[in-house]
Amino acid sequence: MNQASTDEIQTIVAARALAQTRTVFIGVGRPSTAAILARMVHNPALVLIYESGTIGAKPFHIPLSIGDGELAETADAVVSVPEMFNYWIGPGRVDVAFLGAAQIDRFANLNSTVIGDYDHPRTRLPGAGGAPEIASSCGEVIVVAPHNKRTLVPRLDFVTTVGHGDGPGARERLGLRGRGPTAVITDMGVLEPDAASKELVLTQRHEGVSVEAAREATGWDLAVAEEVRVTEPPTERELGALRELLAR
Amino acid sequence: MARILGLSDAVAELVHDGDSVALEGFTHLIPFAAGHELLRQGRRELELIRMTPDLLYDQMIGMGAARRLVFSYGGNPGVGSLHRFRDAIENDWPHAIEIEEHSHAGMANRYAAGASDLPFAVLRGYSGTDLVAHTNVRFIECPFTGERLAAVAALRPDVAIVHAQEADGEGNVSLWGIPGVQKEAVLAAKRSLVTVERIVEALVPRPGALVIPGWAIDVVAVAAGGSQPSYSQGVTERDNDFYRLWDEISRDRDSFSAWMEEHVLGGVGAR
C-alpha cells in the first residue's frame, strides 16, 4: 500500500480518538469521515449523532450533508431539531463533539462566522450552526482542522464557539458545562490544552513533521510539550479501510 | 380542515410583499417548488426566516426578493459557500440585506416558543460568544435557581411554508424522515401552507401517522417533486450532484441569473 498522506494520517488519528467513546456528535467533512472510520475499525458500537436529528446513524457512504437520506434510514432514532438540542445536546448526553472551524486561537476558541469585520466582512462564512451549544454541552470537544497560519491564528475575527475562553476558569465563569476542547487534531500533529494554563500545546507530531515545522505553521508562538510523541503510523487495516470508505 | 388549492393560487393568497416568511425543512423536505413560485409571482421585500438558508434562500436572495434574513447556518452543506448569500452580505448585490443570525439551538427554541405562543424561550447558550453583541439575545436569571440563562424572542412569521410526503383530502399531513422544525414553523406562523408530494385517499392507518392535523393548517397544495434538489424521504432522493453543481452555477452573477431565468422564471404561465 502507498504511504499515507498527511490528510489520511489526520483522519486516522481522529478516528483513533473515538476508540473508547460511546456517543459522538459530528459535523460534515473530515470529522464525519473519521467517525465513520472509527465505527469500521475500532468501535462498531459507536453511536453517531448528526444535528439533523439522526441518532445512531450507520452510513455506509460518507454523507455530503448532515441530513442525507441514508442517515435517517439507518438511524436508531430520528428526532426534531428542538428535541435534538434541548433533550440530547443541552443536558450533556453526548460524550464527544467532533468539530471543524475556519479559525482557531490558542485557547481553542473557534470562528466560523466571518473573516474581517462583522458588518463589512472580507469573507462571510456560514455562521454558527449548532457549534456553540454543542461545544458548551458535550462531554468534550475534539477539533479537526488543517494546520496553517490562516487557521491557527493569534486572534479570532469573531468568537462563534467558546473553547477555553481567555484561559483558566473561563468555562466555569460562563456556565459552560462540558469540559471543552481536549484536542485539536491537525495534519501535522495534535495540540492539547495545558491542564493549568488551558493554552494549546503541541503534544504529538505525525511522522515526518518536525516540531519546528509545526511551530512555523502556527499563527502564535506555539508551546511544545517536554516530550512530543510521534504518531503511531497507520496500520494496513486503518489505511485500507479509509481508502475503501473514500472510494465508496 | 385545510383548503386544498393549486400551488400558484395558494402562494398568491398567503404571501404578500413585505411579509416575514419561513420556508422550513432541515436539509430534508425543503419547499423549493413553493419558493420558486414566490419568485415567479415577483414577491419582494420579504423577511426570509430559515435555520439553514440552503440553495433555496441563496436563489431568493440572489433574485432580490429578500429585505432581511434570519438564519443560523448559511452554507451549502458539505460543499462550501452560498455564493449569492455571500455576495449580498459582502458586496450588497443585488442590494443590501439586513441579517439576524443565531445558533441552531437559538433558532429551534425561537420556533418552539412561537408554536407555544410564548414571548420567548430560555436555553443554555450564546454565553461568551460574539453573537451576543450582534444578535437579539438577552440573559435572564432563573427565578428558581438563580442560574443565568439565555433568552431568545419567539419567532412568529406571517407565513410558514413546509413540504411533506402526503396529505389526505382534509389536509391532514403525514411526514416522515428528518422532521426538522416543520411542525414548529407551521404552528408558530399566522398563516401556513404545506406542499405535499401527493394527496391520498386516506393516510396509512397507523397511530402517529398524522403529524399535523388539517385544522391547524390554512392551505395544502400538491407539488410533486417539490422538495428537489432536497428530498422527500421514501419518495425522492437528495440530488447531491446538484448541490455540488450549484457551487459553480451560483459563483458568477451572470451564470446565476441565466440559470434562474431558464429553470425558475421560465416557468411563468406554464403552471
Structure report:
The complex is a heterodimer of chains A (248) and B (271). Chain A has 248 residues and is of the alpha/beta class. Chain A has one domain: Glutaconate Coenzyme A-transferase (3-Layer(aba) Sandwich), CATH 3.40.1080. Chain A contains 8 helices and 14 strands. Chain A has helices spanning 6-16, 30-41, 69-74, 81-89, 131-137, 170-174, 211-216, 236-247, and strands spanning 23-26, 47-50, 54-57, 77-78, 96-99, 103-104, 110-111, 114-116, 121-124, 140-144, 181-185, 189-193, 200-205, 223-230. In chain A, the strands form 3 sheets. A 10-stranded mixed β-sheet of chain A has the order 4-3-2-1-5-10-11-12-13-14, sandwiched between helices. In chain A, strands 6-7 form a two-stranded antiparallel ribbon. In chain A, helix 1 (6-16) crosses helix 2 (30-41). The radius of gyration of chain A is 17 Å and the shape is globular. The mean pLDDT of chain A is 97. With 271 residues, chain B is an alpha/beta fold. Chain B has 2 domains: 3-102 and 156-255, Glutaconate Coenzyme A-transferase (3-Layer(aba) Sandwich); 104-153, no CATH class. Chain B contains 9 helices and 14 strands. In chain B, strand 5 (75-76) and strand 6 form a beta hairpin. The mean pLDDT of chain B is 96. At the A-B interface, helix 3, helix 4, strand 9 and helix 5 of A face helix 4, helix 5 and helix 8 of B.
How many runs of DSSP E, i.e. beta strands of chain A? Answer: 14
Shape of chain A: globular
| N→C terminal distance of chain B | 25 Å
> What is the average per-residue confidence, as pLDDT of chain A, rounded to a whole number?
97
The name of the CATH topology of chain A is Glutaconate Coenzyme A-transferase
Secondary-structure element order of chain B, N to C: EHEHEHEEEHEHEHEEEEHEEHH
Strand content of chain A: 15-25%
Query: Could you name the CATH topology of the largest domain in chain B?
Result: Glutaconate Coenzyme A-transferase
Approximately how much helix is present in the residues of chain B?
Answer: 25-40%
Q: Identify the CATH homologous superfamily of the largest domain in chain B.
A: Glutaconate Coenzyme A-transferase
Which structural category do the helix and sheet elements of chain A fall into?
A: alpha/beta
Q: Summarize the biggest pleated sheet of chain A.
A: 10 strands, mixed
- Shape of chain B, please? globular
Look at the helices and sheets of chain B and give the structural class. alpha/beta
